[in-house]
Amino acid sequence: MKLNWIKNSFLFLIGVLLVLVVLEVFLRFSKISPPSFSEYYEDIGNGLAKSEKLLFFNEGLGIKETNEYRFYGEVPLQEDSATIKIALIGDSFIESKQVFTRHYFGVLLRQELEKRLPKKKFEVFNFGRNGFGLKDMYAYDKVFVDSFEVDYKLYFLAQLDFETDKTESIQFMPKTSRLNPWTSPVSIEHDIPLSELRPNRTVQLIRDYSITAVMLNNGIERVKRLGLMNVTLRPFNFVELEAPLERERKFNLPLDPLVFKIISSLDSNTILVKRDTVAIPNTLKAAYEEYQVTHWDLGALIQSMHVAGNPPNWWEVTGKVGHWNHEAHQELSLYLADLLAQKFESDNIYD
Amino acid sequence: MLFNSFIFLIFLGVVLPVFYSLPTKTAKNTFLVICSYCFYGYWDWRFCILLFASTLVDFYLGDQIYRSKNKLNRKRLLSLSLVFNLGLLFVFKYFDFFVTSFTEMWSMEGADFLHVNILLPVGISFYTFQTMSYSIDIYRNQQAPAKNFIDFTLFISFFPQLVAGPIERAKTMLPQLSRKLSPTKQQLKEGVSLIVLGLFRKVIIGDSAGRYVDHIYHDPELYMSIEILTAVLLYTVQIYADFSGYSRIARGAAKMLGVDLSINFNQPFFSKNISEFWRRWHITLSTWLRDYLYVPLGGNRLGRNRKSLNLMIVMILGGAWHGAGWNFAIWGAFHGFLLLIYNLFFKDCKWVTTQYRVFDWLKSLSIFVLVSISFLFFRTESLDQALFISQKLIYWEISSHTWLFTKVILAFLSLTFILDLVESYYGHTFLLRIRSTPLRLGITSSLLVFTLIYMLQTTPAPFIYFQF
């Protein structure tokens, strides 16, 4: 009796494993769900995996390729003085998993700059990471980006990056190293134990190697985000979805004191770029002035796209509002090329 | 309610136990009618009014045709039924399209008021064809009218096949519905197996292929040749997995209620010629068009030229049945043209009829390629877009993603092909052929769980054929 039970369980498991193996192979080749894209490194904590090429389905269809240096894109890293290196640092908007690399605003920006300044060469690096706030960007800059000796660093920031709420809730995400807010200027510490970064090594290992596990995790996250009732009972809407109108937003929460500390610690070649339409509060403007930080605002561009009926974050195919779409990447590259050209002129970089 | 949504699984989970517990045939059928209307009304309750009107009219007219002894009167009653059903289709499906085409042709400005702007009721093409065949069969004395209005209402509204077929005939469905429905153990097993395999095809193969297709077809100018080729080939995979998956779920759900529905797909990409393809693809529509359009037009009885003309008419109308757009008519015409070519030049050709396995594979491959090309017209929104995509495929561009997309194509084609191959040997319920019960349970349950995991992480995609 007992032997029979063991035999049946074994056969049942064989059936389950058989299906899992076939599906894992199918998923790996069909690329419909990407495996985990992060890797733990002693020097920078959780970073991007080296030399990977993955397809993403989110609001759009995107391909992201990492290089041997653990960031996105094919970068020759030339050492000649005629090459101007620009680092784009930010969150998932800058990472842009929604578009192919050739449609990425960084790539278009490089092409546009080379068209305008044919005597110069440009390298534009994508240092965007999903979920990064200002503190993560700063830490990533100090422990990683700095080593590439770029000429310009563009931090892309949104309203939430300045407010206390977000910075408190993320509690120094162990994506990179820990920021110590009590020192002045802000310092970076590498005191996060491995166990804290990878809370359960077995779970992490399964997630790293099994796409099915990643899919299950995505499903659980979706249920947490939308609620079980919404996921299971919502009727399908056959009516064509339309892009929602841009809501007017303001700073609601007090500014995070750490923001001012970071601003005071920024390198002189750093440019803060506000990537949303929310007006900057006067206190922040004053801090920019005080520490002579170059700051640009994409608000007018984004607003003009909304007014023209092309919301920059509207994805018609999936009916989602999210990250920048193809048109936004195009417009953004031209806009930034204008601003950078002016900056080069003021910095006498043409000489 | 979409079959690939959790709400449908919950719906089925509630309907089945209640249905099994009901004691009489009338109670069971009445309950199923109520459930079917709830299922249909879940999209929009107003659709139910139309469905009921169509049921009422054809029940009455069918009865009157049968009772009438006067040939002319019978003809008039049949015409009334056809005008009503085709009128519904025309108003809800084609009217705006004809208005747009007419105003564009004559450059009429300010003619927007002519549009009726009505939401297309889901599955209208399927149930109107079903009701029409009922009236025509009675007129032809091939079918007696339904005696019981509940049975007839269930025949029209039976939820597993209401919105996307199979298009059933009264002669196969009504006898089943006139008995007390009680599924056998074998039917229950087959039902579960078909639902699991249908969901798997639809969700894992169809929906995931659709994610590539939707993005690339929406903005083809953004993509390179290999990516366009992926979309073109995967659309064929998508529409096949989507529709055949739906048909399997429909058959499975019906079996669990004790009803056997017709097989709609029979490994169409194993066809060795285009004529065979149409005997394996959307079988219930093909046979409907044959019996109620091709044969009345004269079929192949009036000579070669007339046969060719009939074939073209049937294929163009069959294409237009799918939707109000020139692209569907072009798709139909393309298939009509392929059938003509086959009938004229290849049908009696010796090397075509040679039974060598290598040749068979090549023939099947050529059918897949031709059908994929035809679906290019089916999927694109305009002829210009279809031509643009064709140009991209002809003037090949080199892409750094060639190997990546080649792997994607191979993955989808392989899984589809393997499933079809297994089905061709062991039937649509091949899982039941596994003798070891624990092994079968392991495979079936993990296929279901995996599909549910996939469904959990994405919004359900509607079946392509719902819009028809």
Walk me through what this model shows.
- The complex is a heterodimer of chains A (351) and B (468).
- Chain A is α/β, with parallel strands linked by helices and 351 residues long.
- Chain A folds into 2 domains: 39-195 and 251-346, SGNH hydrolase (Rossmann fold, 3-Layer(aba) Sandwich); 198-237, no CATH class.
- Chain A has helices at 2-30, 92-95, 105-116, 134-143, 159-162, 164-170, 194-197, 201-209, 211-226, 228-233, 257-265, 282-290, 299-307, 326-346, and strands spanning 38-41, 45-48, 53-57, 61-65, 83-90, 121-128, 152-157, 178-180, 187-189, 270-274, 294-297, 314-315, 320-321.
- In chain A, strands 6-5-7-10-11 form a 5-stranded parallel β-sheet. A two-stranded antiparallel ribbon of chain A has the order 1-2. Chain A has a two-stranded antiparallel ribbon with strand order 3-4.
- In chain A, α3 packs across α14.
- The longest helix of chain A is centred in the first third of the chain and has 29 residues, at 2-30.
- By secondary structure, chain B is mainly α.
- Chain B folds into 2 domains: 25-179, no CATH class; 188-467, no CATH class.
- In chain B, α6 packs across α7 and α8 (185-218) runs parallel beside α18 (437-457).
- Chain B is globular and about 65 Å long.
- The model of chain B has no long low-confidence stretch (mean pLDDT 88).
- The chains are: A alpha/beta (351), B mainly alpha (468).
